[in-house]
Amino acid sequence: TRMGRTLVELFYDVVSPYSWLGFEVLCRYQHVWNIDLRFRPAFLAGVMQATGNKPPAMLPKRGEYMLKDIKRMAEYYQVPLQASKDDFQRILSISNLGAMRFITAAAMTEPQYLEPLSREFWISFWSQHEDISQTEKILAIARQAGLSPELAQKLLEMTSSPTVKNQLKETTEEAIKYGAFGMPAIVVRVNGEPQLFFGSDRVELLGSIIGE
């Protein structure tokens, strides 16, 4: 048996549908594999901008394919992700910066809520098609994830602090440093060397490389 647990870092943003799929798959494997799963909320737009990447759906054929692909994957993994053509526009028009700062504030102070909180943001954005840029919506999502109104309010106040803003920025820069150009970006160290896996469909390959 292997000693020690393998650290698996998941860089994600809740506007990314493939991040949700990758998140759910890794959440399931964390109970089966000898891994420590570390959630790293980051800002997708920052990664795209730094690397000159463009939203995949800007290529119409790719957009058409993505809708079918997301639908198939959502069914396969049993994740209630409902994507439509309008969502590509929604990603560009709704600001997710507040949401990702809120999740970052939770990561810094209440990490035990990180998994349910992130999931509720995805459900809100991708299952219920809600506007996660609204303060009221963010607080409702937090309550849904089991946070007390007091705690949710505290995290909300933290989102405007330089500490939280810098942390999100640093995590995003870290993802870029590992070679990320989109999300999800999954990083694992093999013999001390960081290996980057992009997307939600490389988890079996990741498992094989870490000896699972």
TrEMBL record:
> Is Kinase among this UniProt entry's keywords?
no
Q: Report keywords, A-Z.
A: Transferase
- Can the keyword Transferase be found in this entry's annotation? yes
Catalytic site residues? 16 (nucleophile)
Q: Which reaction does it catalyse?
A: RX + glutathione = an S-substituted glutathione + a halide anion + H(+)
**Which CDD domains has this protein been placed in?**
DsbA_GSTK
Gene Ontology cellular component?
A: mitochondrion; peroxisome
GO BP annotations of the record are:
glutathione metabolic process
Supply the enzyme class, top level: transferase
- According to the UniProt entry, what is the EC number of this protein? 2.5.1.18
Against PANTHER family, the record matches this protein to: GLUTATHIONE S-TRANSFERASE KAPPA, GLUTATHIONE S-TRANSFERASE KAPPA 1
Q: Can you say what this protein is called?
A: Glutathione S-transferase kappa 1
Q: Where does this protein come from, organism-wise?
A: Psilopogon haemacephalus
Q: What is the lineage of its organism?
A: Eukaryota, Metazoa, Chordata, Craniata, Vertebrata
Q: Which gene encodes it?
A: Gstk1
